Amino acid sequence: MRVAGMLMVLVLLSLPAYGWEEPPGFHGTPWGASQASVADSWRDVRCYDSLGCMAPLSVGGVETKVYLFFGDQGLDDVSLTFPPLHFDTMVGAFLGLYGPPTTREQQTVQSRMGASFLNDTLTWHGDTVDMTLQKYGSKVTESKAIIRTKAGTARLLAQHREAIDDAKASLR
Questions:
Q1: Which of 41, 79, 116, 118 has its CA 20 to 30 A from that of 166?
Q2: For residues 80 and 142, what is the distance between their CA atoms, to the nearest angstrom?
């Protein structure tokens, strides 16, 4: 019986994992693309030296603002903001394009005025890319999607550590 159980575990481990479909980039722009190539190929894009680029983008009729960020290896981080009224449309688009999320959580958040809202957060974790789709980002008037490579996450963590080290040094 024990051997049969171990054999079943081995069979299950050998089956392919049917997870979500990691994106190779965003909106036709591959991860690693340069800021200059984004400036040349995106319509109505504005780029700001080391800060990245911003462009409006209609996603299935939902007007979004797209923020593209670049590390040493090129494009590694994309954020979209859009009205919460269109959150369900964006959820449908993400589920249809990328598949089911790794996790989905709902929690109550509160506005500065004290009103309560049910926040919905979908998260996809992959080998090279992590994504988050959130009904209420830093404010209840804005939904947010973040699509970031592991390299982008490492870059942001390094920048955060550097800022902390700089702050510590200035306190001495």
A1: 79
A2: 10
Helix (H, G, I), strand (E, B) or coil at 54: strand
Torsion of CA 87, 92, 97, 100, to 10 degrees: 100
d(CA 148, CA 154): 10
Dihedral sign computed on CA atoms, order 11, 15, 20, 26:
positive
Give the residue from 150, 84, 149 showing the smallest Cα distance to 117.
84
Does residue 120 or residue 9 have the better pLDDT?
Answer: 120
pTM over 0.85: no
Euclidean distance between CA atoms 18 and 83, whole angstroms: 32
